[in-house]
Amino acid sequence: MRTVSLVPSVTESLSAWGTDPIACTRFCEREDLSHVGGTKNPDISAIVELQPDLVVVDREENRKEDYDALGAAGIDVEALHVASLCDVEPELSRLAARIGVDWKPQPLRERAAALTHASGRTVRVFVPIWRRPFMTIGAKTYGASLLARCGAEVAFSDRGSYPTLDAGDLSADHFDIVLAPTEPYPWHLRHLDELSEIAPTHVIDGQDLFWWGTRTPGALVRVAETLRALLSPQGFPHAAPSSVTGA
Question: If you ran DSSP here, which 8-state letter would residue 190 be given?
Answer without folding.
Answer: G
